[in-house]
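User: Fold this; tokens only.

Assistant: Input:
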Amino acid sequence: MKSILLVIDMQNDFIDGSLGTEDACRIVPGVIEKIREAVKNGDRVIYTRDTHGTDYLQTQEGRLLPVEHCIRDTAGWQIREDVLAAANGNEEVINKPSFGYTGWAQVLREEYDTITLIGLCTDICVVSNALILKAMYPETHVVVDAACCAGTTPERHQAAIRTMESCQVEIH
């Protein structure tokens, strides 16, 4: 079986920076373990990085969420060091300019039996990418490990989990 692990936006700003939460901090050890397990199994590991420019506050997203975050080349934009190190150099990193990444077909380049997503934020970027991937690959097991995700609030995390379940994304 061919599997891939997508580590969504485990960046400093989402963990303990400008948009960080206690729940995001709490999932870090489990995320690290999940990445190490994927590497040990020979699975492909891809990290996404939410990426904005210095004009963020003038964008539609910036007007609706007026908190500067993940500005390219800042400390908050970086993937948390211990999370990145967990892949031991066996990772790829893609920068995505919006919640859901529309370039998955070019990045994945082949079919997988299972695509697993973990990371932040469940109710924004995780759900967006899970639904895009499920639409692109309807016969692939698209899985979200809920214990390795955190939402902007616990309630929004749960709402996103329910939405993904409704769309046949497997929740573990």
